[in-house]
Design goal:
Elements lengths: L8 E5 L4 H12 L3 E6 L2 H13 L4 E5 L5 H15 L4 E4 L14 H29 L2 E6 L12 H20 L5 E8 L13 H10 L7 H12 L8 E4 L7
Parallel strand pairs: 1-2, 1-4, 2-3, 4-5, 5-6, 6-7
The structure holds NADP nicotinamide-adenine-dinucleotide phosphate.
NADP nicotinamide-adenine-dinucleotide phosphate binds next to helix 1.
Amino acid sequence: MSNNIQGKVVVITGASSGLGEAAARLLSAQGATVVLGARRVDRLRSLADELTGSGGKTIAIATDVTRYDQVKRLVDAAVHTYGRIDVMINNAGLMPQSPLERLKIDDWNRMIDVNIKGVLYGIAAALPYMKQQKAGHIINVSSVAGHKVRPGGAVYAATKHAVLALSDGLRQEVKPYNIRTTVISPGAVATELPNSVTEPDIAENIRKIYEIAIPAESFARAVIFAISQPEDVDVNEILFRPTRQEF
Ligand SMILES: NC(=O)c1ccc[n+]([C@@H]2O[C@H](COP(=O)([O-])OP(=O)(O)OC[C@H]3O[C@@H](n4cnc5c(N)ncnc54)[C@H](OP(=O)(O)O)[C@@H]3O)[C@@H](O)[C@H]2O)c1
């Protein structure tokens, strides 16, 4: 029986670590072709070698999601190599949280550029192909912080609220093209994300919060759930958190 994953061409941004890497592993194990994008190309290549070694089909392309031309090159490479793009996972992101009064304007700009513009560039790169195919699936990664705001997390939460808004608008606009959309909002998952915090005292607090973090496979299973549904089933939102997470 088909799992509706076998043979699908899945592009993943932020595939060099954490959630993107875990999704790539599980999708590849279930027969998807995975096209990996991130800036740390050495990490992408070793993941690609591992997946190919286990019989998977994959390519790795150095991609900075703050550059539209590079995101387009990633998606174009998927289509040129494998003939189509079935799923676009806009996952790349960072979380340098701090109270607004600290005026960490460079951190604000990086979050806006990666977490919002990076998602938009992924949509822009994939949508023309999916419209033409009259099929496709765009998965955007938001956060529990896309639903709730806490002191110190205003800008990160704003970017993740933006991902929810973009996903809901996209969902309604792409109905004529038979394109599915999913926004996944994880709680604390054990990845390298806390390393992106630039303020030492905030980093320490976040490390404590992440003591209850769950493995990245939790995200990968959510991705599998959304993609594996029959084509007439559009799972639009998934929110999950560690059982022990209060926020
Ligand atoms: N872990 C959690 O608890 C959690 C919870 C909710 C939401 N999320 C979201 O999940 C997504 C993935 O994060 P993660 O937890 O897996 O963290 P992670 O381990 O730090 O991974 C982040 C990924 O994003 C990539 N990235 C960062 N800036 C990039 C850029 N300019 N261009 C291309 N790729 C870039 C990184 O690759 P390179 O550095 O190699 O470019 C890396 O692969 C993020 O959107 C994050 O906000 C995570």
